[in-house]
Amino acid sequence: MTVHTTLPSVRDEALAILKRLEVPDSAFADKGLVARSPITGEVVATVRETSAEEAKAAIGRAAEAFKAWRRVPAPKRGEFVRLLGEGLRAAKDDLGRLVTLEAGKITSEGLGEVQEMIDICDFAVGLSRQLYGLTVATERADHRMMETWHPLGVCGVISAFNFPVAVWSWNAALAFVCGDPVVWKPSEKTPLTALATQAIVERAARRYGEAGLGPVPAGLSEVIVGGREIGEVLVDDPRVPVVSATGSTAMGRKVGPKLAARFARAILELGGNNAAIVAPSADLDLALRGIAFAAMGTAGQRCTTLRRLFVHESVYDRLVPRLARVYGNVTIGDPRAKGTLVGPLIDAHAFESMEKALDEAKAAGGKVHGGGRVAGLGGEGAYYVRPALVEMPGQTGPMLHETFAPILYVVRYRDFDEAVALHNAVGAGLSSSIFTLDMREAERFVSVEGSDCGIANVNIGPSGAEIGGAFGGEKETGGGREAGSDAWKAYMRRATNTLNYGTALPLAQGVTFDV
Ligand code: UN1
Asked: Is 258 within 8 Å of 77 (Cβ atoms)?
């Protein structure tokens, strides 16, 4: 089912939001980065690009800010993030709507993205009083050994279009409480939401000053706008000891070695080729809903999107035809319209990749349900597609790599071990799930011999992670972890301190050295 609606002009709405959120006019120019909306393909604004010189100056300001910010007690830094969270709460409707307008996410997902930002701010505020180090038992008398966590320095963040603001916040909220300034290079496809977020950060900084907590140093939060060249400035600058980069595995292959060459830390969150297993005992109604959201939600443009499905042969015929019907009935359309579940792809390139993958799938013997562009929606420059469900004869062809579009490949399996082996037989290792009521299978799936991913779920799909857990994956996903649990440690440096409060000088390991 598709919906055709006439809603207010995307451009007018976006410009009104940018004004309300106090994005300065100086952010725009006659020439620069053209911000388009995937809803209609229309140009919303032209954003001034940051030159390499300006990017270096921004890093310089951040490096200066570090000297002051690292000395502010962590709970006070947390107070700044608390104000940021309040600002985001107040701006939730506007910023969520702007995510919809700029990235094409449906309304509830645009709002959900801002909720994720609020949640990570709350988490970081609590964390600001919990940056704990250990006290370690020492082998020497009259000694104490402990570890101290210190701020690390400027944190670079490179984010992707599909989570244009939440991914920044997972990094930035932690970095700020950890004592690190942030220089952010948003996706060139979504500069507007980044500018709006920066305006909210600046307001929180002003409120922090007005509350008498002292100034938030200029340069604590910087945004640099542009393409790959600008990201490279961030990656190459020795004043940036940690870079968190979200995007394709191809991008990570370039960024990772550059950071390694200068011994900087990399937090890489790259591609996913996420799978789910539907076992004989699965609750099929629940599995159906979980699969539909994970595979079609966000028009298949999450790095946690479900892309491969292994269904046990005993339930295949009860599940897959139902799933094909759900695919046939899903509401595709303007993401602002009530009832829409699948909005547009981000651009023509995404559409072409989807077409190519579906051609390859057919050539590999796949039976395709759905797929193809929906005519008459959004205009020429907008790409609305029918999500595709592809029954594959085996795990071959395009199924082995990530295509950032709503394609779900389905394969039959016979035995659990075979399903797990197929599950793990791809390059990426981000997210995974199993639908089963058999506790042995569930436990084996999350055990060391089960899923090899950073996220392994039971009876929920692979997408839609909460911020409380560490987010990220293994293998070609890059190994980085962001958001909850102890991901904060990547933004700090650990010092081990041994203190001698005695008069003797016992050496470790019983070494004697008498002078
Ligand atoms: C991403 O697609 O870049 O688990 C991240 C999820 C979201 C994050 C996705 N919380 O789907």
From this structure: no
